[in-house]
Amino acid sequence: MEFMPTASSAATSGRLLSLLSLLQVRRDWPGALLAGRLGVSERTVRRDVDRLREIGYPVRAIKGPEGGYRLEGGSQMPPLLFDEEQAVALAVALRIAVGTGAGIEEAAARALATVRQVMPSRLRQRADLVEVTAAERDTQVDTEVLLALSSAIRASEEVRFDYASPSRPAEARPVRRVQPHHLVVRNGKWYLVGWDAAREDWRTYRVDRMELRVPNGPRFTPREVPGGDVATFLAARFKGSDTADAWPCQGEVVLDLPLAEVAPFAGDGVAEEVAPGRTRLRTGSWSWAALAAGLARFDAEVEVVGPPALRAAFADLADRARRASRLHDD
Q1: Torsion angle, CA of 287/291/294/295, rounded to 10 degrees?
Q2: 228: left (phi over 0), alpha (psi -120 to 50) or beta
Q3: What keywords were assigned to this record (predicted)?
Q4: How far apart are CA 291 and CA 177, in angstroms?
Q5: What is the separation, in whole angstroms, between the first and last Cα of the chain?
Q6: Do β-strands 249-255 and 201-206 pair in parallel, antiparallel, or remain unpaired?
Q7: Mind listing the pLDDT tens digit for each residue in 188-225?
Q8: Phi and psi of 21, rounded to 5°?
Q9: C-alpha distances out from residue 73 to 64, 216, 296, Å
Q10: 242, 200 in Cβ contact below 8 A?
């Protein structure tokens, strides 16, 4: 890994970095167009291309009326050249990667140490401003599983796997067959979003609970997730909705608490002050019972504005609480 020097060779080094950046953003570059973008002659472009080749970048000359250049994949990793903003972004990304649960924590930590060691002190100080503390996690994803799923997604190949859950081990369930479409990280866990042809529905699976079988199944024609956005789709599924990213059960109450004591615990709800010491809260949950129980945690008087289903859920919750109290007294 190298950083562009700032001494007498700064102009040449900066131009090399600009040339490399241009070669990375499109497949083919006519020599004249590159020269124009860099503000130099075509002869200088040829010399700079030779310099990139010398340090390991496989830049191929393209024959034709205009001629040009193409950056291709090589057989070995060339030295990496970063400008200052790229170097800081890389260090921050590696620091975050240590806590992804993707099985690359050790490699990411070693890469971060390597990057920090060669960074100028001013850049190291900027990168170190971002402090990331990885919370202790109880799930760890096998990197090979992530790579295998990613490969199947790109190749549009059906995957077969055993799937375990807290209630049933993988061997107690039939083998799943799913068309994989997306790998998503949510709340520190990896999920596979795919189409289950047997059930004719979209399904979401925790990757850490998957045990892949080989070989993969047949190829399939990719389809679009409902709504077209996988993040919105997954958020909706976690709220118990099949369509919009919204809770299926939504209600409105007034709590005998000041706004400052409600807002920090409102989640994705909307809280507003209606009077001193009283707060209106509009929020939702996956069921009316869950919504009533969630609102009861505020430990304050609750006035249900609506709908009637929420008021009925509070009544049922109160009945169950009374029964539980009597059983406890016995």
Answers
A1: -170
A2: left
A3: DNA-binding, Transcription, Transcription regulation
A4: 35
A5: 73
A6: unpaired
A7: 778 889 999 888 889 889 888 889 998 898 999 999 88
A8: -65, -40
A9: 21, 27, 60
A10: no
- By CB atoms closer than 10 A (0-12, 13-18, 19+), residue 84 is middle
Displacement of CA 131 from its chain's centroid (Å): 19
SS3 255: strand
301 burial type by CB count under 10 A (0-12 exposed, 13-18 middle, 19+ buried) = exposed
- State the Cα–Cα distance between residues 266 and 275, nearest whole angstrom: 18
Distance CA 287, CA 79 (A): 56
Cβ neighbours for 94, distance < 8 A, ≥ 6 positions apart? 108, 109, 111, 112, 115
Pick from 125, 116, 117, 122: nearest CA to 91: 116
307 preceded by a cis bond (ω within 30 of 0) = yes
**Do residues 97 and 104 lie in contact, with contact meaning Cβ atoms separated by under 8 Å?**
yes
Q: Helix, strand, coil: what percent of the chain each, to 5?
A: 40, 25, 35
pLDDT tens-place string over residues 17-36: 788 778 877 778 888 888 88
Parallel, antiparallel or unpaired: strands 302-306 and 249-255: antiparallel
* pTM across the whole model: 0.52
4/14 Cα distance (integer angstroms) = 7
| Contact predicate 58/72, CB 8 Å | yes
Question: pLDDT for 53-65, tens place per residue?
Answer: 887 788 888 877 6
Both tokens of 70, joined, read 């193409």
What amino acid occupies position 10? A
Q: CA dihedral defined by 163, 168, 174, 179, rounded to 10 degrees?
A: -30
